[in-house]
Amino acid sequence: MLSRSTGRRARPAYPVLLLLAPALLAGCAPGDRPAAAPSTVWDAPSATATADQPAPATPSASPAGPSAAPSPAPLRRVFPVRAGKVAYHPTHAAYPGTDIFADCGEPVVAVTDGTILEVSRVDRFDRRGPLGPYNGGLSVSLLGDDGVRYYGSHLSAISAGVDAGVRVRAGQQLGKVGRTGNANNVCHLHFGLSPKCTGHDDWWIRRGVVWPAKYLDSWRRDGNRSPAAAVTSWEREHGCPKAPRTTTDAG
Q1: Per-residue pLDDT, 201
Q2: Is the distance from CB of 125 to CB of 56 less than 8 angstroms?
Q3: Which regions form coiled coils (predicted)?
Q4: Which one of 31, 49, 77, 237 has the largest count of C-beta atoms within 10 Å of its C-beta?
């Protein structure tokens, strides 16, 4: 191609570009390169709800199902006589039971929460007989919520409102220490532990089938030892005998 002003042929620009290329490349040496723009970091969706997408539900604590309900508090148990001066012996004549000696008139209380099972407000004991059914004089039996029947006899009085079917709480007064029945004129509470069985006229079971002393020891020290396992074990082994094995004048 001829130049209009000089008449010379114009040189193509390609050699110039080729000469410039090394210089351009030299300007991108690692030490001289501009810092690359920070890459965009993608965040997962937050739990915040938007107008068109609600927040995801919070997973439950246990994927296997709803969390278990809290365990109920254990039943409270208290010593059956509320008095400063009490005494008892770990053994008893003829069958498992305990005589708790205290002054007449001292409060007799419910050992634990439960339902009154039987109440005797009349002293029908007669030394001429029969031996057994009326030995306890005035008495109360409580079916605890633990399934144990707690029996107390020889009372001098039964508290008003304490009747069969009535709910009571641990420590609630049921009556007063006395010497009715075959108490031999000695103020004390006969105390027995047994299963419910028939719950009526089974005096040979009601008077006691499990030795109470170790439980009384615990309750007197504000412990909470339960006789439920021992009573259940006895019932599993013996059932509910339909008649007494022995008849004695013990309360």
Answers
A1: 77
A2: no
A3: none
A4: 77
What is the per-residue pLDDT for 111?
Answer: 98
Within the chain, which residues score under 50 in pLDDT?
1-10, 12-65
Could you tell me the domains of the chain? 87-250 (2.70.70.10)
Distance CA 190, CA 184 (A): 12
Q: How many CB atoms are closer than 10 A to CB 181?
A: 22
Phi first, then psi, for residue 239 (nearest 5°) are 70, -145
Write b or e for each residue in 120-157: b if 16 or more Cβ atoms lie within 10 A of its Cβ, otherwise e: beebebeeeeebbebbbbbbbbbbbebebbbbbbbbbb
Q: How many helices (H) and strands (E) does the chain have?
A: 4, 10
Encoded tokens for 173: 């007064």
